[in-house]
Amino acid sequence: MRDDFPGLAGGWHYLDTAATAQKPQVVIDAMARAMGEDYATVHRGVYARSANMTLAFEAARRRTAEFMGAGSENEIIFVRGATEGINLVASSWGGVNIGAGDRIMLSQLEHHSNIVPWQMLAERKGAHIDVCPLTADGRIDLDWLETNLTQAHKLVSLAHVSNVLGSVLGAQRAAKAAHKVGAKLLLDGCQAAPRMRIDMAELDCDFYVWSGHKLYGPTGVGVLWARPDILEAMPPYQGGGAMIDKVSFAGTTYAPAPGRFEAGTPMITEVIALHAAIDYVTAVAGEGGMASLFAHESALVTAARTALRNINSITLYGPEKSAGIVSFTMEGVHPHDIGTILDEEGVAIRAGHHCAQPLMDHYGIPATARASFGLYSDESDVEALIAGLERVSRIFG
Ligand code: PMP
Known about the structure:
Elements: E1 13-14, H1 25-35, H2 48-68, E2 76-79, H3 82-97, E3 103-107, H4 116-125, E4 128-132, H5 142-148, E5 153-159, H6 171-180, E6 184-188, H7 200-203, E7 207-211, E8 222-226, H8 228-233, E9 244-248, E10 251-254, H9 268-285, H10 290-309, E11 314-317, E12 325-330, H11 335-344, E13 347-348, E14 350-352, H12 357-363, E15 368-372, H13 379-395
Parallel strand pairs: 1-13, 3-4, 3-5, 5-6, 6-7
Antiparallel strand pairs: 2-8, 7-8, 9-10, 11-12, 12-15, 14-15
Helix pairs in contact: 1-9, 2-9, 3-4, 9-10, 10-13, 11-13
Bound molecules: 4'-deoxy-4'-aminopyridoxal-5'-phosphate.
């Protein structure tokens, strides 16, 4: 399967898939075709090429809806990425539904893109942010959530899978707790969509966002799903072409969802390549579905954690059973030095705060080293990581 990925050539060990996944050739080809012999705009042209492009663009929307277990393709909004998806909800839904004194519940492990948009909204509206703590092993503490949500909470916004710890949220329990107090639940599915089954009906959330580049697709495209009744009541996010019904200087009316939220010429080639990425990932997952990718990656995490434990001075973070992501520190060695030495060994990991500074504060550390796996990862990656870390350990004594 590695041969499908030009970005993996050269025998290096790519352990930064949580940041962004390498692309299979079929995705690169789909994007090149869409930018080359098939290229034209969508939704406007009367000529055949543009009509075909529109069909391909809308087929991608249907495929995305099917992949997510959405009720209809009209529930799928193409955005630039998860970051834009969250900003869209904060600005549009939040602008109407969050007022002075209202509360928004986040958690200690959120990515900055699921913190800052809410802080900006709260500041604008005079609302408050609450932070759900973590369990000792680094999961969002749902017992705490259940007892601390109140009628003042209008929104709960949580990572489905942590990008630092790999912890998986009990999403249905979180949904139940949110809905019990009349709050909506947004799930940040950036790290879940590429490695586990996501089914909107089953998850029972109200909003779900993810980024195409983490699902082996291109950058510049992401998905926002929202319940249709919520979407219909949401005002536009940006104004411009394509999102309107009728424009006049006397006043403008807007298109229904999803068009209302997709102002301007969309990311045509990226959306078409995302379709190819979904097809590729689901084909690799095979009969067992996305659950088999989860099992493959979490087995690699278990192997990595077991081996890491045998290296002196390593501290592991996060739960034993997690999605394909593991964070660690080594006493007396800065994670950046770990990353630099591993790079000399042909092992690419991420070192830093992973856009989760409040989580680093929680552990009282500035950074971690993080290894993350993808569908192309295997035992040789774990072995190279461990061999590299043994060298780090020797260098630093
Ligand atoms: N949330 C999580 C959990 C993530 O891992 C990321 C990407 N690191 C984001 C949000 C933001 O995604 P993007 O930068 O693609 O918008």
